[in-house]
């Protein structure tokens, strides 16, 4: 009998900090249950949304439990066979596609860290190019019969910067 009572499918309906409350399909309500998550991964159920879960009851003791799995099917992205995704309730998505691509979806993609990993630093590039434009525009020739140099307009980074990628 103890083995039968060790796992239960549950409906998670409340999160209070790191403690969860849920209702087992048998109708019993449990509160202050911890949610065990894989190291390096963390998530919280969206407010106002019920979630499906699997609860573990240690030794079959219904008063000693942990939530193992938490799913809110409403937010799960459409995936093809073999694809994986990391996603949230706000349309941000990292998808590993069936053809080997990595798709990043979000309102803004922000890269933080000490290195830009090969990405162009827009401010530094704009400054460098405009320094060259200033030197070009100030250059004059003293020889006779030379063509007049046409002045160049400095670059404005907003003309070519993708503001959806922040670094």
Helix residue percentage: 10-25%
CATH class of the largest domain: Mainly Beta
The biggest sheet amounts to: 5 strands, mixed, barrel
* Lateral strand order in the biggest sheet: 1-2-3-5-4
Q: Can you count the helices?
A: 1
Query: Which secondary-structure class do the elements indicate?
Result: mainly beta
Q: How far apart, in Å, are the first and last alpha carbons? A: 57 Å
What best-fitting shape do the alpha-carbon axes yield? Answer: rod-shaped
CATH architecture of the largest domain: Beta Barrel
Radius of gyration: 28 Å
Description:
This protein is mainly β. It folds into 3 domains: 7-74, OB fold (Dihydrolipoamide Acetyltransferase, E2P) (Beta Barrel), CATH 2.40.50; 77-107, no CATH class; 108-140 and 147-167, no CATH class. The protein has one helix at residues 122-138, and strands at 7-16, 19-24, 29-35, 51-57, 65-71, 84-87, 93-96, 102-105, 109-110, 165-166. The strands form 3 sheets. A 5-stranded mixed barrel has the order 1-2-3-5-4. A hairpin with a 2-residue loop joins strand 1 and strand 2. The chain is rod-shaped. The termini are far apart. The mean pLDDT is 86.
Structure described in brief:
This protein is mainly β and 167 residues long. Helix content is 10%, strand content 32%.
Question: How are the secondary structure elements laid out?
Answer:
Layout: E1 7-16, E2 19-24, E3 29-35, E4 51-57, E5 65-71, E6 84-87, E7 93-96, E8 102-105, E9 109-110, H1 122-138, E10 165-166
Parallel strand pairs: 3-5, 9-10
Antiparallel strand pairs: 1-2, 1-4, 2-3, 4-5, 6-7, 7-8
């Amino acid at each position: 009998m103890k083995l039968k009572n060790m796992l239960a499918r549950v409906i998670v309906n409340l999160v209070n900090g790191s403690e969860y409350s849920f209702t087992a399909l048998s109708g019993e309500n449990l509160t202050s249950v911890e949610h065990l998550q894989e190291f390096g991964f963390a998530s919280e159920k969206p407010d106002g949304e019920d979630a499906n879960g699997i609860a573990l009851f240690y030794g079959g003791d219904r008063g000693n439990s942990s939530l193992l799995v938490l799913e809110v099917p409403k937010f799960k992205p459409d995936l093809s066979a073999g694809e994986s995704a990391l996603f949230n309730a706000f349309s941000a998505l990292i998808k590993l596609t069936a053809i080997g691509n990595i798709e990043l979806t979000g309102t803004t993609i922000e890269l933080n860290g000490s290195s830009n990993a090969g990405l162009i630093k827009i401010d530094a590039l704009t400054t460098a190019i405009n320094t060259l434009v200033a030197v070009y525009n100030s250059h004059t020739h003293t020889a006779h019969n030379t063509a007049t140099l046409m002045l160049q307009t400095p670059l404005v980074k907003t003309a070519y910067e993708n503001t959806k990628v922040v670094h």
